[in-house]
Amino acid sequence: MSTSNARVNIDFVTQYVGRGNVQNANHDVSMLGASVKKLGTIFAAAFTGAELLNFSKQAVAAFAADDKSAKILSNTLSNLGLAFTDVPVENFISKLSELNGIAKTDLRSSFQSLVRQTLDSTKAQNLLNLSMDVSKGTGKDLATVSTAISKAYGGNYTALSKLGAGLTKADLASKDFNLIQTKLANTFKGSAATAADTFSGKIDRLKTSFEDFKITIGSGIVDAFSFATSNGGS
User: I want to staple 145 with a disulfide (CB 3.0 to 4.6 A). Which of 50, 65, 135, 151 is the partner?
Assistant: First the structure.
């Protein structure tokens, strides 16, 4: 990796492991959102023109991916007759991302698989929370868990049986989703919150906050170019 890329990407993990201070990481999570403007000033002062260009490209790419993810979910909700839940769902996902250090693109993808099956945004939110707990409790990635739970909701329990989530053959054979959901909830209750409060979880939250910062910068750059193009063409 070039020196430019290393400086632009900013390795939060190295920074906080080097400090060896969980309190510093915890404090910075709460302060980062309020420091976005200050960070922008620091970046402008610290980076060379080439580094700013590289960071700008990363920011635009981050914004493009986030924008695409949000619009695909919005379209899915509209197609399911749930367009009225678009804003509340996006707020829910943003809050989950902030509290748990999980990218909004990943949360939206998992939510989509659940809402397509349940046809109910509230139910899908509950199952996404459950998926996060099971994911942290089993060590399986969120996409794998949410897909398994989505399939189980539709009556296919094969993927769920492979999660190592403590479900017995009798549980699975019952094909009683409510029973299985209750058992998973009781087994893994609080796992996501516990993981988010660990040192590793705080680092994940810092990374997510910085990614959100890049998305905000990327959005501003795209808006600026759109404005300039529009004015130039008038």
Answer: 135
